[in-house]
Amino acid sequence: MKETILKMSDITKVFSTEEMETHALRGINLEIDKGDFVSICGPSGCGKSTLLSILGLLDMPSTGSYVIEGTEVSQLSLTAAAHIRNEKIGFIFQSFNLIDELSVYDNIALPLRYRQNPMSHSDIDQAVMSCLTKVDMAHRTKHRPNQLSGGQQQRIAIARALVGNPALLLVDEPTGNLDSKNGDAVMDMLKTLNLEGTTLCMVTHDPRYADMATRKLHLLDGKILAPQAQTAHPTLVDAF
């Protein structure tokens, strides 16, 4: 029996101004099981970024339920959300988001140093070096990010995302700033991590990479399209 990592039920997100309301998400229902590799596709403005922000606890839904590993997180305070995010979610961004003033080693160690329950120096070192080895970058510990190529920086970003042993890895356009060769290499690495048991949820505009996922979701106007409706005349539904 599969273990459910997260479950969203009837998630909505409304952005309001004095002039208008924008319904970014409309009744999203989503389950991701341990070991899944889910890709999320859709046109610009369909709600992909909003959904990813809520999945990563960078934003909260307007209504609905969001449960991560048995914990309801849809109405957490910013501080509580930050603690859950640090311990359960890893991020890989299009722009890498590494800190040039820190070494490769310290970039990867940083999330562990903000843990609610402090880790020992030896445990941090073991976790950092293990993740660097996974991405074939153990020889670059003392380099700064700006001394590395784009492909190498994305490998470091993957190691940083993995270092906390997260329940879920959220991946936002991981190849957007890479050439095709480095993009393919990064996607091969993500696929290998998934085959080794890492749970992935990826937003991408590239259909080649989306097809590498074991489940492919399409968003349109803030709703998930039914799999059987991804043809000439799709019908909008709330679908798992």
From TrEMBL:
It comes from the Bacteria. GO terms for molecular function: ATP binding; ATP hydrolysis activity; transmembrane transporter activity. Signal peptide: none annotated. PROSITE patterns: ABC_TRANSPORTER_1, ABC_TRANSPORTER_2. Keywords: ATP-binding, Nucleotide-binding, Transport. Residues 6-239 form the ABC transporter domain. One of its GO terms (cellular component) is plasma membrane. Pfam families: ABC_tran. The keyword Transport applies. Coiled coil: none annotated. Belongs to the ABC transporter superfamily. Macrolide exporter (TC 3.A.1.122) family. This is Putative ABC transport system ATP-binding protein.
